Amino acid sequence: MLEIRWHGRGGQGAVTSVELLALSAIEEGKYAQGFPSFGPERRGAPVTAFNRVNDKQIKIRSGIYHPDVVVVLDESLVALVDVAEGLKPTGILLVNTTKSLADLKKNIRFEGKIATCDATGIAWKELGVPITNTTMLGALLKVSGIVKLASLNAPLKERFGRIAPKNQAAAKRAYEEVKIN
Amino acid sequence: MGKRVGMEVAIAAAEAAALCKFDVASVYPITPQSHVAEHLADIVNDGRVDASFITVESEHSALSSAMGASATGARVVTATSSQGLLYMGEVMPITSSMRLPIVMLIANRAISGPINIWNDHSDIMPMRDTGWISFFAENGQEVVDMTIQAFRVGEDRRVMLPVNVNMDGFQLPHMVEPIFFPDQEEVDRFLPEYVPYATLHPDRPVSMGTLGMPEIYAEAQKAKDVAVVNSIKVVKEVWKEWEKLFGRKYEPIQSYRTRDADVALVTMGSMGETAEIAVDALRKQGVKAGLLKIKLWRPFPFAELKKAVKGIRVLAVTDRACSFGGPGGPVCSEIRSALYEESVRPAIVNYLIGLGGRDVQAEDFMEMVRRAAKGKLSEPYEFYGVRG
Questions:
Q1: What CATH number should be reported for the domain whose range is B3-246?
Q2: CB-CB under 8 Å, B176 with A19
Q3: Which member of A101, B26, B190, B236 lies 3.0 to 4.6 Å from B54 by CB, making a disulfide possible if both were Cys?
Q4: Average model confidence (pLDDT) across chain A
Q5: Is the peptide bond before B192 cis (omega within 30 degrees of 0)?
């Protein structure tokens, strides 16, 4: 079973991301959970959201404390929140940033694998807005291999309708451009 | 036959009500039930069912309007949580006395003091004695299945009672997960059109909800009790039929690895699956652990409980609400009293867990079993893992 924690700010679409990932996995016949951190959320404030994906039925319904993957939608959070908290040493930290690895590591206490993606740049170009959740989904699919990129298409279409192709393009580009260090 | 979809459970609950072709939804939104309310409104607005959505200014009005609608013969759904449920509390015993088979979807949430929006069972427990049938769902699938079953059970002429379907707030309604949905035709076959016993109609005047003088009030209470007690037969019959049609088994008390169990946990609601993981892990360590999951809270399944505990030495009963100054949690006190007259009965310990959204992990359940093995805790009931 793969457990994922998403960090974002209220309004950046972390909750939408976990929903889209869960739907994509279920579409493939897998089992998945997607859930927000339970409780109030404010626009702009740090938020978390969670996924579990498995080939077998998922029974566990308690919180996720030791994720396999952490996704950070907003690089400003790295200095504010311990984004690597509980992350398994064998896990992956995926950050939306243009910073160098050395720069990033100043604020991150994690010795494992770190992947970076300029999702904000991609989102500006492909979507015309700096909303990076669907872009980072593409990057996540590359680094985790948990779901096929094509499996995102139907949930994106269902969710975004007319503007789904733009989101698909952004996800695809991030899938291709994400750097695993 | 049916389809497997990923869906947020709150949305799925509303979709299940839509499959039942409700005539009226009368709902006031409250966290963490809001998505149920919003999606019911969407379904009506989009014309997907031929129904009315009554917008109200409070939960008291939501249930009162629901009753009015139900009394005209409509199939009615409502939904609430926490303080909203307490606010409905004044109306709830009237609903059951008037024998109106309304279905209420409850996203269980702690009641205030201090204010808290997270999950426990302190909202439904004070409503225990209102004469409603109470189902407890363990996952999204059970929320959908039980919603459909609730209409069938409540509307059965031998029952004619309101039914609430309890889903642990946030843990269930806010979760996106895979769910099998039956086809509309399958639901239509399972759930015939509602045929009310009596309706409010200007051409055929009847009185409902009248004054009950001392000469009749007690008889009315007894009649309601008989109706609730006897409804278990119909619940079990409907669950058997459901299993035959859809392959998913429902029992008032569901046993998990209890055949040779020494210590068995008792849970109600969404923690059952996490507890199963704990039981599996304990079994691997050679501990003979088991689990009883209560799916039917009212009417309480006394006979089924007595059968289910046979051979078990210790029951570790978990409660998600406190009866302050009372015997512990409401589930435990029910179980103790149910087993009192048995010549051979298990020792019982009581843990109050998961209050106001406190997370309970599989390791916690393992610890509860290990400590319960002694058959006694240092206190009559224990607030598990709580400071102070």
A1: 3.40.50.970
A2: yes
A3: B26
A4: 96
A5: no
